[in-house]
Amino acid sequence: MGELFRSEEMTLGQLFLQSEAAYCCVSELGEIGMVQFRDLNPDVNVFQRKFVNEVRRCEEMDRKLRFVEKEIKKANIAIVDTGENPEVPFPRDMIDLEATFEKLENELKEINTNQEALKKNFLELTELKHILRRTQQFFDEMEDPSLLEETHAPLDPSEVIRGAPLRLGFVAGVIGRERIPTFERMLWRVCRGNVFLRQADIEDPLEDPATGDQVHKSVFIIFFQGDQLKNRVKKICEGFRATLYPCPETPQERKEMLAGVNARIEDLQMVLNQTEDHRQRVLQAAAKTVRVWFIKVRKMKAIYHTLNLCNIDVTQKCLIAEVWCPVSELDSIQFALRRGTEKSGSTVPSILNRMQTKQTPPTYNKTNKFTSGFQNIVDAYGIGNYREMNPAPYTIITFPFLFAVMFGDLGHGVLMTCAALYLVLRESRLIAQKNDNEIFSMLFAGRYIILLMGIFSMYTGIIYNDCFSKTLNVFGSGWSVRPMFDPRVGGNWTDETLEDVKVLQLDPAVAGVFKGPYPIGIDPIWNIATNKLTFLNSFKMKMSIVLGVIHMLFGVSLSLFNHLYFQKPLNIYFGFIPEIVFMVSLFGYLVILVLYKWIAYNVFTSKEAPSLLIAFINMFLFNVSGTPLYSGQMAVQTILVLIALACIPCMLIVKTLIMRRQHMWQRRLGTQNFGGIRVGNGPTEDEAEIIQHDQLAQQSDEESEAPEEEEFNFADMAVHQAIHTIEYCLGCISNTASYLRLWALSLAHAQLSEVLWSMVMRIGLSSRSIAGFVLLSLVFVFFAILTVAILLIMEGLSAFLHALRLHWVEFQNKFYSGQGFKFMPFTFDSILEGTFDE
Questions:
Q1: Cα 87–88–92 angle (5° rounding)?
Q2: Total-model pTM
Q3: Is residue 530 classed as helix, strand or coil in its secondary structure?
Q4: Which of 384, 558, 712, 827 is deepest in the core (most CB within 10 A)?
């Protein structure tokens, strides 16, 4: 039970693993995830370790699997995830896995290569088909002048052909549609207008065999005269990445070629369909087992990487490892080692020995799905020192409560609770879906935090009697607006008085006005009072001070358990006691004044109550102005201030002087021998050995925290103690003022909610007709969106961050240093969760 309030007790163990059983033993340790291996070869290069070849083989298999996974995703095939946890393959199975992955990779590469070649051939034939069709249309237009005039061509090539003694040459090809304007301008400039270009767009986009993208292309035909222009045209086409195709000159040859091209396209389409079907079958078969393969390969890689951290015995028959592990899990670790030894078939058992060390162990706090979110909040501030008090168990209650003090609204709390309940009740299904959205994953990880924040917000909303900025009059107000007689009006309040006078003050001192306190929370009549904000300001400000001082006193009290556990009595007498006395004398007294004022004054004497702020300021001035709160107030406050001032030198000077005296006394222990003569006034050698042995036994815990005993430096220690004392004394003031954010955020949330209601919902409620009902429906949608966006998300995040700050700075700094390092066990959990990215 003690491990709930402080980190688990850790031990350093030495593992002796037989070479043939080491792989299986490490595999079993990875399954339970309770062992952190230390690197015993820090000076050895990674490429010079024993199992580097096995790690490389695993990386090569992982690369092949990533290639297969990429092809599966490219084909839009879903990877089957059954949640299976496959066992780690034996080392002898690595050859079979390598052969399987090699065969699969080569088959896919061969299919892709053939498919790309077929697609390239299919693209060329498709482009040639369009060229033959379009060029025939161009030549038909040339033979029919009426068609040519309709095309508004700048040059009539038919007249050139008929009138010229030489025939025109031409080239035909395909070019990207976006290059056509630049291509045409370049032809005109280079050939000086001596060529004729005709082009037509291909309606259907064509698939690029290299990238798989759909591209739009155009067919063109260029007429020219002479070989010089022909060479220029071909170079320009080559520069613009245009593809030229042979095109026969006679219509009959073009027709025959087109028929042959169409036949070849049909045959290629059939072969492409068969190739794609075969590729789909291969990828679908791989998609069923690729996740299992990933887990197996990465488990093997993790095991060999861990084995590289071990030392190898000179006999090459034994591996030596050093591990950090919880003492409570030693039995399960021993059982895992026996299971691994049996699985490997070895007859020599693996040995786990506990070692004595002065090194600081890692910090391990055992958590479950409920406490993990709160532990993450604490760890975000800093990992606790070994066996230091863990703030997480207390944060489970204090964090959502302080959040609710700032977020107190019954309606908003219900909405937040419902959202958290959805995540909690469907957590198994949501985990199986493995949503990759980062914001959703963060909210899902803190679902229990949100649930408690919503429940506590409902509670504080009832206390504030606030639901969407409106109060709930469940039990009836404790105030009566019709007293039998009111001396202020000279008789009873009439209906005319209630109608004509807009502001009526209800004096609780008048008989019959105040019937009694509201059963729970704030009386609903305050919602219509003109001094509502004044009353809530006073109430919430004092409440924030009371909660803040109690919270800080609780944090200081927890430091006592740290001092007792680490056996540091000096920190108790000259650290904890002066700190608690200092805070109680000043701010604890302020809390008592607040509670006393609430209890001591009633409706008849409330006007005579003095101001607490003035009384607290006069306390430091050794003065009592006005009416005192109680008799003997001056003497009590003077004594408390003197006690608080006396605590400062105890923390500032006395502790440092005592530590220096202890150090000097330890140095005088023993004797100094010069030529066999004992010098000094200390005890004899035997007595010194006994004293030193007793002191070492008492200081074993302190020595275990530091590998070497540091030399005592009085100046450094004095400066350190001075900084700590000044920080604590000034921090008591600033931290108490910091808790006023509970008051500020609570009022801000209530005012935002009230403004949203008055500016939005009042518009929909202003009309009672059918049109008003439609308007109310539209306004309610707008109101709901703003409520969720502003009051739930924005205000909720603001209150969350302020509650986080109060815990990190005002609460945890009283007892929690957070300078340790986290226990990072060797485990396969990340692989099983599907986090394959490394």
A1: 125
A2: 0.80
A3: coil
A4: 384
